[in-house]
């Protein structure tokens, strides 16, 4: 993390902890409950927010070599991602141009060509059509027109983004903004290796999962025996760093040990988790020795389902048995904390909300990160364009404005 960012955050957290305060939104925000289950609203959200915007599909270390490929289902679209000979990536709709069979069936592998399981049409790794068995039946077509459908793809900070709409613009540096770009660059996330990964199909709207990630208010209540005791509940620093990107820092209890130290020189990293919210679907948690990438995808049709992939990355893969055991212990803790504790609450919330007679849920002033997400979504879904979260008026505690009533009826 850049020195000037650490200095600013250190001063801020010491003030918050001493003063028992945190960042605040200007007012409470009501969120229409139907955004979590209404079919029409969620159809609009998928089309306007997910299908036309860049979403993270993988980490670069998943495809290190030429001809390495992976396939992923994203909101019902199967995507085939292939590392090219020149080191760049191509992304394709994983569907044969003949009669639409799913082309690559494996989740990952290394191949210089892909053969369709139905009538064995084959394609090169660059997506061009290579051969058609009994090709005289197709003498009338221009084969150069029948390559795989290409999707926009970009790779930055070790993350691979695609857009599910062919021809859509894609420039990640532009999308996340200069400040977020510089901050992510400072961690050299592209130098890390994926060491654990798991994907969960869960009976929750994707926003239930996202809300949980962005919630420093629940820590001691939902996680009293796991991670709760290590963190300061309801103390956080939120900074909007780009048009679709924010930093959410939470502090460890160990923050108390740096009281009295000079914010300009103190090493803040052991005392925080720095979370990056890259809208719409990616959440990156940077810790001193590892980082995590969470990607959340809505189900293709059902608002009450979503798929989340958790990825755990280390600078170096474990070198010996002891490091392997340490990794396994941390991974199990993450999975238990998220899948059992957070999602235990989330699954029940999702089940109960539609018939609860609650029309609006409430997000407090101390829940500015959730207001940021829902304010942005409401603006995008209701075509108000990109909502700008108003900059804080006072240095500490920061107060974010301009989020209430910004199309949240959507
Ligand atoms: S559908 Fe792929 S070869 Fe026929
Ligand atoms: Fe949690």
List key phrases describing it.
410 residues, alpha+beta, 25% helix, single chain, disordered C terminus, binds FE2/S2 (inorganic) cluster, 2 domains, seven-stranded antiparallel sheet, Rieske Iron-sulfur Protein, binds fe (ii) ion, Naphthalene 1,2-dioxygenase Alpha Subunit, Chain A, domain 1, 8 helices
CATH architecture of the largest domain: Alpha-Beta Complex
Q: How many separate domains?
A: 2
**What is the distance, rounded to the nearest whole angstrom, between the alpha carbons of the first and last residues?**
37 Å
Quick one: overall form?
globular
Bound molecules: FE2/S2 (inorganic) cluster, fe (ii) ion
Q: What is the CATH superfamily label of the largest domain?
A: Naphthalene 1,2-dioxygenase Alpha Subunit, Chain A, domain 1
Number of strands: 22
**What is the highest CATH level, the class of the largest domain?**
Alpha Beta
Task: Please provide a brief summary of the model.
With 410 residues, the protein is of the alpha+beta class.
